[in-house]
């Protein structure tokens, strides 16, 4: 059994899962930024303004998440992936063919938030298993942000579907 000093001074053991999840989350955040930015530009109509404004605000938060994930990777002697490692997966968040189809964008945001929430929950569990409380705390904090985004866009969806 490890002494208290050994436990306190030990570096988290990395089986690769934590690093892989951090890298995946990093790319997800950047893909979200691309899609939020594009949708904030292409949406048309008076009804779209509140959604566009929300997307623009969330872009800064998503960039901050990516930065924090990248910094954590660096602390773990890994690095964030570059664009050559990027593979788009957010198909439902692509700009709609009809630029006034605000509900399609809302639904795409909800899909992206559900995916992000699943990733951060998995990261929380992996970090806990790896005895990495710093990554676990980071994942919990970002998870809370993503759940708040989901709640906001669930409200938008409810409003749009009731009209």
Protein traits:
disordered N terminus, 163 residues, 0% strand, 5 helices, elongated, mainly alpha
Topology:
Layout: H1 4-9, H2 17-42, H3 49-75, H4 102-129, H5 133-162
Helix pairs in contact: 2-3, 2-4, 3-5, 4-5
**What kind of sheet is the major sheet?**
none
- Unreliable spans are 1-13
**How many strands in all?**
0
Spell out the helices and strands N to C. HHHHH
Distance between the termini: 62 Å
Q: What is the radius of gyration computed over CA atoms, rounded to a whole number of angstroms?
A: 18 Å
Structural class: mainly alpha
Helix content: over 70%
Q: Residue-averaged pLDDT, rounded?
A: 92
The helix count comes to 5
Instruction: Tell me, briefly, the overall form.
Output: elongated
Beta-strand content bin: under 5%
Structure, described:
The chain has about 160 residues and is mainly alpha-helical. The protein is about 70% helix and about 0% strand. It has 5 helices and no strands. It has helices at about 5-10, 15-40, 50-75, 100-130, 135-160. It starts with a helix and ends with a helix.
């Amino acid at each position: 059994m490890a002494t208290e000093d050994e436990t306190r001074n030990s570096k988290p053991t990395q089986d690769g899962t934590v690093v892989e999840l951090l890298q995946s989350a990093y790319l997800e955040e950047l893909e979200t930024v691309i899609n939020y930015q594009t949708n904030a530009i292409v949406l048309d109509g008076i009804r779209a303004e509140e959604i566009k404004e929300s997307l623009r605000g969330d872009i800064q938060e998503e960039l901050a998440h990516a930065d924090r994930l990248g910094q954590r990777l660096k602390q773990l002697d890994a690095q964030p992936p570059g664009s050559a490692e990027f593979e788009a997966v957010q198909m439902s968040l692509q700009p709609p063919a009809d630029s006034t189809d605000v509900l399609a964008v809302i639904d795409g945001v909800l899909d992206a938030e559900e995916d992000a929430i699943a990733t951060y929950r998995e990261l929380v569990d992996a970090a806990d298993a790896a005895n990495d409380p710093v990554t676990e705390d980071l994942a919990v904090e970002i998870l809370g942000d993503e759940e708040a985004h989901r709640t906001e866009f669930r409200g938008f969806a409810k409003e749009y579907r009731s009209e």
